[in-house]
C-alpha cells in the first residue's frame, strides 16, 4: 500500500515483463511534491564502524536510509528511486528480507550495478536514495 498516494504513484505496466525483483517499473511524482536527494548511504554503524561482512553492511545501509529519511520527516514510502552499487554479488535472500520489511508491497524503482570499488576500500555496498514528499 502506498501511503503517499496523493504524491507518489507506482506502476508495473501490463505490456512489460513483470519486475525481476522487488521494485516498481514506474514511479510517478505529483507536481506539488518536494524532491529530496540524499548522499549515498553506506553500511557504517552508529559507532562509525564499517563491518567486513557484506550482509551486515546491507542491514546497516538500509537502517541508515530509514534514519536519514526520518531526519526529514519522511518514511520509506516517500522513496521514489534507489540505485544500488555493490562490489560483491548481493545475497538477494538477505537483501529482500530487509528491503521488503522496509518498503513493503509497493517498493520504489531500482537500478543495480556491480562495480570495481566505492569511495572507501572497505565499502561493499552503497545505496543512492531519491525521495519526494
UniProtKB/TrEMBL annotation:
Taken from the record, one Pfam family name reads Ribonuc_L-PSP
Source organism, top-level taxon: Bacteria
The record, for Gene3D superfamilies, names: RutC-like
SUPFAM superfamilies xrefs: YjgF-like
Q: Which PANTHER family match?
A: BLR7761 PROTEIN, YJGH FAMILY PROTEIN
Q: What name has this protein been given in UniProt?
A: RidA family protein
Specify the species. Answer: Paenibacillus albidus
Amino acid at each position: 500500500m502506498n501511503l503517499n498516494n496523493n504524491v507518489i504513484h507506482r506502476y508495473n505496466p501490463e505490456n512489460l515483463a513483470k519486475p525481476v525483483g522487488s521494485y516498481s517499473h514506474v514511479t510517478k511524482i505529483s507536481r506539488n511534491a518536494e524532491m529530496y536527494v540524499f548522499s549515498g548511504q553506506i553500511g557504517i554503524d552508529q559507532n562509525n564502524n564499517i563491518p567486513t561482512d557484506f550482509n551486515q553492511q546491507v542491514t546497516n545501509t538500509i537502517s541508515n536510509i530509514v534514519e536519514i529519511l526520518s531526519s526529514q520527516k519522511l518514511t520509506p514510502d516517500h522513496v521514489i528511486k534507489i540505485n544500488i552499487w555493490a562490489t560483491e554479488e548481493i545475497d538477494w535472500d538477505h537483501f529482500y528480507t530487509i528491503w521488503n520489511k522496509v518498503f513493503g508491497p509497493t517498493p520504489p524503482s531500482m537500478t543495480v550495478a556491480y562495480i570495481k570499488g566505492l569511495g572507501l576500500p572497505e565499502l561493499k555496498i552503497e545505496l543512492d536514495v531519491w525521495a519526494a514528499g
